[in-house]
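Priority: medium. Attachment 1 of 2:
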């Protein structure tokens, strides 16, 4: 980026909805949140329509550090957070991360 609000390089598409759980209500992959752990760069993203019971969060993982190569990202085939009918929990909410008070854990 040439400044905090101007993209100066080529845009790279990291993910598009391909699994059924990403296409409920509307096919969506949006709202990326980055988490870096050891050698992995992870992106948690919103999948499916937020108004749908099946709204969930997906995960992309990159351990190559080649972040602008879409082929370097591995998409998990199942959501990392989702609601369940059994627990009557729906709409897991948008993903975000903060450090625990000790700084050792990501919440």
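Attachment 2 of 2:
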């Amino acid at each position: 980026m040439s400044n905090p609000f101007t993209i100066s390089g080529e845009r790279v598409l990291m993910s598009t909805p391909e699994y059924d759980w990403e296409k409920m209500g509307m096919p969506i992959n949006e709202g990326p949140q980055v988490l870096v752990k050891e050698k992995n760069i992870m992106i948690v993203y919103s999948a499916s329509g937020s108004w749908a019971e099946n709204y969930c969060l997906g995960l992309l993982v990159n351990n190559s550090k080649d972040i602008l190569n879409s082929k370097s990202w591995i998409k998990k085939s199942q959501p990392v957070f989702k609601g369940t009918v059994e627990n009557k929990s729906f709409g897991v909410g948008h993903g975000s991360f903060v450090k625990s008070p000790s700084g050792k854990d990501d919440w």
